[in-house]
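Hi R.,

Here are the chain sequences for the assembly we discussed:
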Amino acid sequence: MVYFILKRLIQSVFVMLAVALIAFSLFRFVGDPVSQMTGVETSVEDRERLREDLGLNDPFALQFYRFSSDMLRGDFGFSYRTRQPVSEMIATRLPATLELGIVSLIISLLVGIPAGVFTALRPRGFATQAILLTTLVGVSIPTFVIGIVLIFLFGVQLGWLPTFGRGGTTDLGGWTTSFLTVDGWRSLILPALTLGVYQLTLTMRLVRAEMLEVMRSDYIRFATARGIPYRKLHFKHALSNTMIPVITIIGLQFGGVIAFSIVTESVFQWPGMGLLFLESIRFVDIPVMGVYLVVIAFFFVLVNLLVDMLYILIDPRLRVKEAS
Amino acid sequence: MTRATRLRSTTLAALMSLTATAGMAETFRYATTTDPQSMDPHAVSSAPVLSFLNNIYEGLVRRGRDMSIEPSLATSWEPLKGENGWRFNLREGVTYHDGAEFTAQDVLFSYERASSEESDVRSWFAPVSEVRVVDDYTVDFVTTSPNPLFPDSIANFMILDSGWAEGNDAARPARDAENFASRNTNGTGPFTLASRDPGVETRLTPFDEWWDDDMGNVTEAILTPIGNAATGLAALISGDIDFIEPVPVQDIAQVSGRDGLTVVQGEETRIIMFGFGHEHDALLYSDETTDVNPFQDARVRLAVAHAIDVATIDRVVMRGLIEPASQLVPAGISGYSEANADRPAYDPDRARALLAEAGYPDGFSFGLKCTNDRYINDEALCRAAASMLAAVGMDAQLTTIPVRNYWEQLRADDYDMYLLGWSPGTFDMEHPVRFLLHTQDDEAKLGSWNFGNYSNARVDELLPQIQQELDPATRQGMMDEVVEITQDEVAYVPLYTQPLIWAMKDTIDVTQRADNFFMLRWVTVN
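And here is the predicted structure of the full complex:
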């Protein structure tokens, strides 16, 4: 097990290097950081000096070597925009994104799994059709439209929830959390819903499809014949056997949720990594963009690793294989 | 909890909320699209930074509500006798937010800091050869030649306490890595920085010891950057914030139609114009005209001016908010040429005739480059202009790109005709003459935004004279001459001044200044 984790972590270094290389080769098309960093009246000479100081005139290979070797040493550089250390910028924005992602994941699981089971058990019911239709609509509408509709409904018209930002946060030694104040939770609801809608639908449809499959299988029929109570039959015997594909997909999706919370964060001015990335693109803040993409790559690797480990926990057959 | 303790804690809570409401009566929440990226007044010369820091730091002079120069940390100034330059007499008894006293030494220190290699505002001090401390409250700025505009040009030159900056290892602006002054402040201005979470929230509180009394009633100001226009609007309508700027032109009706909200609009000093590749020998993006550059012919450039209907652009694209422009500064800016206030009328027939006269009776195709995220409705403006040009036979192939790629391409001469917006930083006509009309000269730091390298020997000759002329009438005469030459030659086609659109709760009084700086001391919450 330890060997397995170690192997994955070493692989992750290569994944991150590859991502850094691809990202870096694209940065030259993003724009000119020097124009963004200097004022209108700055002379051409000063601008060129800055370009030279930042090493932007160096060949691509040298710039990439410098970036990746600094990074391997743990030196993430400084932002072109704010001149803050990039590591600190990412670290202060990370909690916001992770909390948003986790809450939206929990919402999608808490609603998606029961809804999936329900719609599988009553495939022809009116409620089933209604649920399937509404979630389909939810998935078809782009995220930013969902966000803006939610803001105008609950923030502007009804005035129940704040329209932007994180609201009240508590600083727990470097980790600012929304979880400890009412305001924080109120601010979290709309963005988490917006981000979670897609996940929710996906989870529900996946659980439903798997359940329909499992319910037809022989062991469920025999279990029914044995007189096992329905609740136990559905949720213990049937549902747990649907979990392997569900966890795979949800896990992979969670990496995506963290990575692509950009739109949601922008609509809600949610001060997470996605918003930081967006601001950095606008400013051609190459160090921040580079580090962000590498961190996201690391997340994907990490989530995949966790998914693999969850398999072993859930499926006894894999445990046996691992032991042998 | 026993009954007694519960009672006590309720009373305590009630008392606390009482004092809290008394103390936080006038909290003002405002939002802009861009967060000031640094708290260091010399590190970044960008409008969001300078605008914000003008609430905390002060210069020797400052701009009033009508943009006029007025005394600030200097009470008076006069030209030096026997040499070129200015003497500033400093205000006595001014203290910094940390209690330190403001003296001439700080002015010298701030000059050295702001003109250092690490500074982004050093171009302001290009004419300065020496700064001398005469006594604790007198400073001389010696310039290489007579410089009547110097006091006007340093309105945003903010003074730091030398002891504070040196004591915190911030004697130079942070160029590569941040330093103490990037996130902390110690000015003499009306507000102090209470807290700062970059990109998320910045809080300001009034400085009780401030020397002046031109102050509204804000007791706490909270700045939140909101990048997304729809989110900002929702936050304003829901009452989560009190003020946003800018408001997209198309959203004005959303705000002004609602009870309790109001829109304040005015004209910015920014002129939107089209520029040309005067130096290009051939068009880059033409299908058929690949050996010559028709825009080298002033008649073709004049045809462009006659072909574009600014009134229609105003009605369709800008909802009636713009003011047509005849020259590179709007009326009211010093040096504006009243004698040349007429702009070429919309006259497509004349445009066609001019093209025929220049040898292009069937017109030609060319590439028009525009931004799509820099000026108000810039992309829509360029689409409208392109179709107007096409109507007279000039087939513009429009490319719109984000501003982060834009300047790089213009500097690489990758255009036939381009869009440019220009705001005169010194609020004087000399500014666009220096940056847009003088021949490119990197060494002398002239013409650095004259992408097409428009060049006229007489204009180049007049610029230094304008910079040094002390007599206002003579100076204006030279300005008139420059404007006349560049209008005759159609160096640029100025279109209009861009509007400023702010939205807020109607209980709030603000002063909208033409440079779009937002002064918290002029905010009153009723």
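Chain B is about 30% helix and 20% strand. Chain B touches chain A through 50 residues (CB under 8 Å).

Let me know if anything looks off.

Best,
T.
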